[in-house]
Predict the structure.
Amino acid sequence: MIHNEERLEELLSEPTSEVIETLSRLQGDLIFLGVAGKMGPTLARMARRASDLAGSRRRIIGVARFSSGGREALEAQGIETITCDLLDESAVAKLPEVANVVFMTGMKFGATGNESATWAMNSYLPAIVCNKYASSKVVAFSTGNVYGLTSVDGGGSRETDVLTPVGEYAMSCLGRERIFEYFSRKLDIPMAIIRLNYACEMRYGVLVDIAKRVWAADPVDLGMGYLNTIWQGDANAMTLRAFDHLATPPWVVNMSGPERLLIRDLGEQFGRILGKPVRFTGSESATAFLTNAKPGLETLGPLRIAAPQLIEWIADWVARGGKSLGKPTHFESRDGRY
């Protein structure tokens, strides 16, 4: 089991041999825009560790507003930090020139009622970044929400499917993808766009949300029915490996675990492990936000942690009162309102 945050972050940032090989080939410095989010710190640290192990001397730079802190921890791990409001074009213009960019910024929670800011962050900001880093390589995060709901028996949405986003958050994320695609074509920027569907670790994620409800004897909502998720450490590794697969126009790839997980089964598993009765509300629908992650796993894998191990770890963490980021995923939302 994972007994403390130090061990957790060590595991989340541990590079695979494949990541080390990728960063041994990658030329130039690496900047993470929006590094202070849920994935950013351990992803940047993995890049630092892999670069060091590969013998590649490069700067690893993390950029964010750092409104909730976190700079000191990153700097202690060998990551340079820059405080910047990325919507401020003059501030972005002063950022260092680097060969490789990971774009992690976005606005989801709080989007409902603040739609204009959501569109600015998700659809306008990519243009600022592309103009600044027109000569760089870019890996940009998107979301599986751009697909919309799909049949639970259809194997999950595929990269070639028609995009039918539900709600303004998902629509603005499709806008983000289209802006990146436009500038990739116009400026010949090699890119990868990652449609991530629920990265998860001990302190946040869909499995954490379900485990905490079971532990607190709160009902688990069955409306969404099914979900995909992936251990954040594996998502970190796959993200860095995407630098081996950039293209113009962008290479688009789904990133999630291979399993189609039934929320009812997850609730019952957590109930057994935690020794708690489980209550459910609602019933399963015929559609859900599901992605087919097979091509991405074949190209960017292998995975190190599968869902059963993650479930065991999370149950132990929740039962011991481990730290939570306090950021629920709202996985049960079917109308795209966050």
About this structure: DSSP finds twelve helices and 15 strands in the chain. The CA atoms of residues 130 and 183 lie 6 Å apart. The chain has a mean pLDDT of 96. The longest strand covers residues 137-143.
